[in-house]
Amino acid sequence: TLSDKYKLSSEGTLEISNIQIEDSGRYTCVAQNIEGADTRVATIRVNGTLLDGTQALKIYVKQAESHSILVSWKVNSNVMTSNLKWSSATMKIDNPHITYTARVPVDVHEYNLTHLQPSTDYEVCLTVSNIHQQTQKSCVNVTTKNALFALDITDQETSTALAAVMGSMFAVISLASVSVYVAKR
């Protein structure tokens, strides 16, 4: 039964508040849909280990493009990943009217932030909570690349030369046509 101690989130995560060693044991998950039901049993062992004051989380920029940033993160190996409940990746933009927030499952360790502006500074922060409601936060500053133009300079030179040749040919053909027309009159 659900109570103040046990909460079930909309995505199916069971949250046990003020967990104690006595809460160790077997928990059964029942998933139901129109095709039927399925059950899984999980054994939970509570050992009382808390995160220490060291940084348990580090976020990195894997790739920065003009309209996107790919970030990844690592959780310190001294921290049991089973203690982590959910992580949320939050991107803060210098413009206070725009924010970007995404909830990311703990087993995901990279995220692609998209629809960004070129040549813009961003601060990307990742916050991870453990079962004891302790949080760890790691941030990184990154600037998106300049927007790429449709033509490189070498392509522009080629296009300019081609346009000049085509224009010259048009002028010669026009002049020849006018000359033939005048000669027939």
Task: Tell me what the structure shows.
With 185 residues, this protein is α+β, with helices and mostly antiparallel strands. Among the domains are: 6-44, no CATH class; 57-143, Immunoglobulins (Immunoglobulin-like), CATH 2.60.40.10. It contains 1 helix and 11 strands. The strands form 4 sheets. The protein has a 4-stranded antiparallel β-sheet, with no helix packed on it. The radius of gyration is 30 Å and the shape is elongated. The N and C termini lie far apart (103 Å). The mean pLDDT is 76. Residues 53-147 form the Fibronectin type-III domain.
CATH architecture of the domain at 57-143: Sandwich
| Widest β-sheet, arrangement of strands | 8-7-10-11
Written as H for each helix and E for each strand, in order along the chain, the element string is EEEEEEEEEEEH
**Largest sheet descriptor:** 4 strands, antiparallel
Given as residue ranges, the uncertain stretches (5+ residues, pLDDT < 50) are none
C-alpha termini separation: 103 Å
